[in-house]
Design a protein that fits this description.
Elements (H helix, E strand, L loop, with lengths): L13 H16 L3 H4 L5 H8 L3 H8 L10 E2 L8 E2 L5 H14 L5 E4 L7 H15 L5 E4 L3 H6 L5 E7 L2 E8 L4 H10 L3 H8 L1 H4 L3
Parallel strand pairs: 3-4
Antiparallel strand pairs: 1-2, 5-6
Helix pairs in contact: 5-6, 8-9
Length: 205
């Protein structure tokens, strides 16, 4: 019933409706008599009042007043479009380009290759990783061995799942034969691809 008020026609904007909804829920949580009396379901009131403070904080932070308008261009800085109108790959590329270009704090990327073609993976992720790792800590979770090899990973941690638990199979640098063997095992093209794409490290094999 409360959420239905967001879709009802009125002169109020969606932001104003959400602000009222959050205020109403906060009033119930604080046991404000003027608000509680408007609630039709005592079980709902008890549920809201029984929530932990951090759950209420999440409600108050829902739909924040400020927002970020991200736009992208396919023509070298011309004809910018809202990122919401882009394909999944365009959205990923636009956001990654921004994230990888600014800041010097530690950065964690979880499967950045998702929705990107091989061209973008190399031009955007690999090239940027080689550059930014000189000035910031970067942790990358990936299924794409090309990112590991071409990105000159300093420390490779190979993981596997056994009996429902994630375990470290092997860990080390690309210069270690055992690490290179594991990469060749999962890399498309195997050892031949590794030889072609990382000749400097593979020269001593």
């Amino acid at each position: 019933g409360l959420l239905a008020t967001l879709t009802q026609k009125s002169s109020k904007t969606m932001e104003e409706k959400i602000t009222e909804l959050k205020s109403f829920l906060r009033g119930i949580y604080l046991n404000d008599p003027a608000v509680v009396v408007k609630a039709k379901d005592k079980r709902f009131v008890a549920h809201i009042q029984g929530l932990a403070p951090e759950r209420i904080d999440r409600i108050l932070c829902w739909y924040p007043e400020d927002s970020l308008d991200v736009r992208y261009s396919l023509k070298d800085g011309e004809s910018f479009k809202p990122v919401e109108q882009g394909s999944p790959g365009q959205k990923t590329a636009a956001l990654l380009a921004f994230i990888l270009s600014y800041g010097n704090e530690p950065l964690v990327l979880d499967q950045p290759e998702d929705d990107l073609d091989n061209h973008l993976i190399y031009d955007l992720i690999v090239t940027q990783l080689r550059e930014i790792k000189q000035k910031r800590q970067v942790l990358v979770v990936t299924h794409n061995a090309n990112i590991v090899v071409n990105g000159d990973a300093e420390n490779v941690i190979v993981l596997d799942v056994s009996s429902g638990q994630t375990q470290i199979v092997i860990q080390g640098g690309l210069q270690e034969p055992s690490i290179r063997d594991e990469i060749c095992r999962v890399m498309e093209g195997g050892k031949e691809a590794f030889d072609q794409r990382y000749k400097r490290i593979n020269a001593g094999r």
